[in-house]
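User: Here's a structure from my thesis project, written as C-alpha cells. My advisor, Dr. K., wants to see whether a designed sequence matches the one we expressed. Can you design one independently, without my sequence as a hint?
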C-alpha cells in the first residue's frame, strides 16, 4: 500500500549554491521574493498600524521608541509583536517562500519565534553592533531572522549592515542573559555587507551574525518586517513562551528604573 506524505513540498527550497553561501557568510539575500502588489498591500497595512493611536504608548510593552537624531522627543519605531494585530504580516510569516528557504537551512521545519515591524522613521537612531542571540537558558541557538523590505533600504536611511563569517565563532560576548553590544574593532570592515534592499527583497541572517544599523538620515521611512524562527527540533512552537519570558524581562528592566505602570495591549 502506498503511503501519502503529509510533509509540505519544498517548492521554494534554496539551491545548493545559495545554501553554501548562507553557511559561509551567515547571511543571504533573496531578491524579489515578494511581488510589488504584495508589498504594496503590506505597506498599506503598515500605514494603518502606525495610525493606531490607542496602541502607541510609551508604557505599552508592544511598542519601542528610539532617540531622535534631529532633536526633540523620542520617536515611535517598532511594534513587537505584530502578527496578532496585522493579518497580512501574519500571513506572510507563514508563507512557504520563507518557510521553504528556512527548511533548507535547518534541514527541518521552521517555527515562528518572534515578529516585529520596524518603521524607522526619519531621524530615528540605529542600533549598535550586536548579535541577536540572548543567553537565556532556553533561548534556541537555531534563531534565524528573515528581514522583509517594505521600503527601499540603503546607507542613507539606515539599512542593516552585516559582517560575514563571524557566525562561525558563536557568541562573541559573555553569556549572562543580558544584551551586549560588540566593540567595533572586533569586526573587519572588509567583511561588511550593507543590506541594500528593494521592496520585496528578503535578507536572512542567523543569531550569531554581527550586525548594526546607522541612523535614518533620509527624509523617507525604512519599514521592514522582521520575522524570527527556530528549528522545530528545538522545541516546536515556542513563540508564546518566548513572549511571556520577554515581557517578564522587560518589566524587570523597566522596574529597575522606577517605571512600574507598563502593560501589554
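Assistant: Designed independently from the structure alone:
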Amino acid at each position: 500500500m502506498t503511503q501519502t506524505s503529509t510533509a509540505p513540498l519544498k517548492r521554494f527550497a534554496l539551491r545548493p549554491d545559495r545554501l553554501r553561501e548562507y553557511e559561509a557568510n551567515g547571511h543571504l539575500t533573496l531578491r524579489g521574493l515578494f511581488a510589488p502588489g504584495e508589498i504594496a498591500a503590506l505597506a498599506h497595512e503598515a500605514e494603518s498600524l502606525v495610525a493606531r493611536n490607542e496602541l502607541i504608548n510609551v508604557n505599552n510593552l508592544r511598542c519601542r521608541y528610539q532617540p531622535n537624531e534631529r532633536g526633540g522627543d523620542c520617536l515611535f519605531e517598532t511594534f513587537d509583536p505584530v502578527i496578532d494585530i496585522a493579518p497580512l504580516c501574519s500571513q506572510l510569516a507563514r508563507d512557504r517562500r520563507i518557510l521553504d528557504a528556512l527548511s533548507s537551512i535547518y534541514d527541518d521545519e521552521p517555527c515562528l519565534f518572534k515578529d516585529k515591524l520596524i518603521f524607522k522613521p526619519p531621524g530615528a537612531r540605529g542600533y549598535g553592533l550586536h548579535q541577536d542571540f540572548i543567553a537565556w537558558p532556553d533561548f534556541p541557538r537555531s534563531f534565524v531572522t528573515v528581514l522583509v523590505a517594505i521600503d527601499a533600504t540603503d546607507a542613507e536611511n539606515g539599512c542593516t549592515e552585516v559582517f560575514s563569517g563571524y557566525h562561525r565563532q558563536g557568541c562573541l560576548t559573555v553569556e549572562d542573559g543580558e544584551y551586549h553590544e560588540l566593540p567595533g574593532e572586533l569586526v573587519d570592515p572588509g567583511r561588511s555587507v550593507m543590506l541594500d534592499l528593494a521592496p520585496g527583497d528578503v535578507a536572512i541572517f542567523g543569531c550569531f551574525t554581527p550586525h548594526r544599523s546607522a541612523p535614518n538620515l533620509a527624509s523617507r521611512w525604512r519599514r521592514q518586517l522582521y520575522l524570527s524562527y527556530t528549528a522545530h527540533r528545538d522545541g516546536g512552537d515556542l513563540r508564546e513562551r518566548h513572549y511571556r519570558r520577554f515581557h517578564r524581562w522587560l518589566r524587570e528592566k523597566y522596574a529597575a528604573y522606577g517605571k512600574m505602570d507598563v502593560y501589554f495591549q
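When you compare it with your expressed construct, this may help: Residues 1-7 have pLDDT under 50 and may be disordered.
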